[in-house]
Amino acid sequence: MATITELRSLRRTKGPASMAPSERGDNKAAAVFLAPWFLGLAVITVGPILASLYLSFTDYNLLEDPSWIGLENYQRMLEDTRLHNSLRVTFTYVFVSIPLQLAAALGLALVLDRGLRGLALYRSVYYLPSLLGGSVAIALLWRQVFGSDGLINQVLGYFGIQGQGWVSHPDYALGTLVILNVWTFGAPMVIFLAGLRQIPEMYYEAASIDGAGKVRQFVAITVPLLSPIVFFNLVLQIIGAFQSFTQAFIVSGGTGGPVDSTMFYTLYLYQRGFGALDMGYASAMAWLLLAIIAGMTALNFIASKYWVFYND
Questions:
Q1: Residue 58, helix vs strand vs coil
Q2: Using CA atoms, how far apart are residues 245 and 254, in angstroms rounded to an integer?
Q3: pTM
Q4: 289 is a domain residue
Q5: What span, in angstroms and rounded, lies between the C-alpha atoms of 159 and 244?
Q6: Residue 119's pLDDT band (boundaries 50, 70, 90)?
Q7: Contacts of 185 by beta carbon, 8 Å cutoff, 6+ apart
């Protein structure tokens, strides 16, 4: 009788020719079902990516054939003050809104984790802004809420405080978009809530026996064990924030104003590509954005070695 080791060795040496007809048929069926996905990947994703890489080295206005100009588009970026401003606005938006959003999401998840009655309803209600936050309707609503005659100024007027046009003031316009992004905390909140449910209760019971209070338990137990979830949400939300477009486009009327205070990088890219028909330069800007997002993601993964705790 063959031993288990001999059987495993025989299985590893079996090639495609020794496969049963039913197994070969299953592989063909899998290939047929996967073919549309690979076709879509090539036509919708890989193809446009490679085309944009080529166009980034050309002068292309959508109306004439592209002409090769080498690195001129990338050199122009070094002297483009509006691009530099859009980077400043975007980084400010990301570094201010993401920590506040994650803090709000974690705080509410901690409240909901107490086992409230009707938890499913609360979870759905709080998740709803994440579904609508990037929509045109919510951006229009936000513009009205923070307008001169909007809800915010009406509430301030009730207390005798003179309001102003928040979205039309260069010092406050970006802040309204930050608040909008913080308001869409539903998706990370649901993920935090799922992570909290996976922390064993025995850790908290042991800490309570040792005399640890709620704050100490949160710092010593919840934060370390939840750090992989924090890292996951942080990476996803940073990538999404760098790609934000609809909010700035609608709130500013597509201008990035006032005084370019809401000129997100993606909005400026849109203006160069479809407003000025400078598609070659816009393609180069898109690759710069890709490099920025990739760099930020890589930094997050490198830094995660020092603060993310995996409970194996």
A1: strand
A2: 10
A3: 0.84
A4: yes
A5: 34
A6: low
A7: 101, 102, 104, 105, 108, 126, 129, 130
Cα-based distances in Å from 184 to 152, 178, 268: 18, 10, 23
CA distance 204 to 218: 9
Hey, what's the torsion of the CAs at 214, 216, 220, 225, to 10 degrees?
A: 20
Distance in angstroms (rounded) separating the CA atoms of residues 101 and 264:
19
Residue-level pLDDT at 308: 92
168: CATH:
1.10.3720.10
Structural domain count of the chain: 1
Closest CA to 86 of 268, 255, 259, 245: 268
Residue 159 phi, psi dihedral angles, 5° rounding: -95, 10
| Dist. CA 61–CA 278, nearest whole Å | 5
Residue 203 belongs to some domain of the structure: yes
Q: Tell whether 73 is covered by a domain.
A: no
SS3 of 173-234? HHHHHHHHHHHCCHHHHHHHHHHHHCCCHHHHHHHHHCCCCHHHHHHHHHHHHHHHHHHHHH
The rounded mean pLDDT for the chain is 86
Is 99 in contact with 301 (CB distance < 8 Å)?
A: no
Of residues 237, 194, 226, the one with CA closest to residue 310 = 226
Decide if 123 contacts 193 (C-beta within 8 A). yes
Instruction: Assign 136 a pLDDT band (cuts: 50, 70, 90).
Output: confident
| Domain annotation covers residue 149 | yes
DSSP-based three-state secondary structure for 312: coil
> Which two structure tokens, joined as six digits, stand for 273?
């590509």
Q: What is the pLDDT of residues 82-105, one digit of tens each?
A: 999 999 999 999 999 999 999 999
Cβ atoms of 256 and 263 within 8 Å: the answer is yes
Q: Which domain holds residue 172?
A: 80-307
Q: Convert the pLDDT of each residue in 236-271 to its tens digit.
A: 999 999 999 988 898 888 888 889 999 999 999 999
